[in-house]
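stuck on this one:
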Amino acid sequence: MTCDLNLEDCQYYDEGECRFDEADIPKTVAVDLDNTIFELTEWKGQNHFGKPIEGVKQALNQLREDGFEIIIWTTRFNEGKEGLKNISDLLEKHDIPFDYINYNPYQPPDMSQKLYADYYIDDRAIEFNGDWSEVVEKINQK
């Protein structure tokens, strides 16, 4: 995977930050791997994956048709490029579309390690709508 962005396309501001024109930045969705793309009933090691979850391929293809770039966001294989290649090979084997793994080329350079995306899809997420008591209630229901 390579970044096709040209830093000459950046717009520089007084703070010295590099930002791309909003019109040039595609919508992004960051998708977790385990229990979101592939089933995981129990942890059996880095190289064990379950089967793809029903509907994932069609859903991600639809998002791509709708103009989204798809970023796989996972804590697996953080030891480097070989681990990312294992994930890439697995996704390709199952024809599951993606653009990047743990990387967003449009991420502002001054941001933290948290991957920037317009939407996050994760089996462990709790949606926050401004009401912390609702969040606590949802967590306690799990």
